Amino acid sequence: MIKYLAIYFIIINLISFVMFYVDKQKARKDKWRIEEKTLHLTSFLGGTIGSIAAMLLFHHKTRKAGFVAITFIALLLNIFAIYGLYTRL
């Protein structure tokens, strides 16, 4: 079970990281963007590490205080969820 959870978290974080990268590239080219709620969804589904890494690496969405706050909330919820899963297994 732990193996599958680890694989899930690796995949969701990679997806989140790539989505932020794609959104940043589209922002630079003034093209269609990925909706913020979609980016947040990947964070809440476990991709906060990928989201935060991409935000810091690409300087993407870091000036939007509300976006950063929601990402931080997602991080806290992910920490509690992982802790809860870890203590039950």
TrEMBL record:
An example Pfam family from this entry, by short name, is: DUF1294
Q: What molecular functions are annotated in GO for this chain?
A: nucleic acid binding
Q: Which UniProt keywords apply?
A: Membrane, Transmembrane, Transmembrane helix
Q: What is this protein called?
A: DUF1294 domain-containing protein
TM spans, by residue?
Answer: 6-22, 38-59, 65-86
The record, for InterPro entries, names:
Cold_shock_CspA, DUF1294
Keyword Translocase set for record: no
The UniProt entry's coiled-coil ranges are none
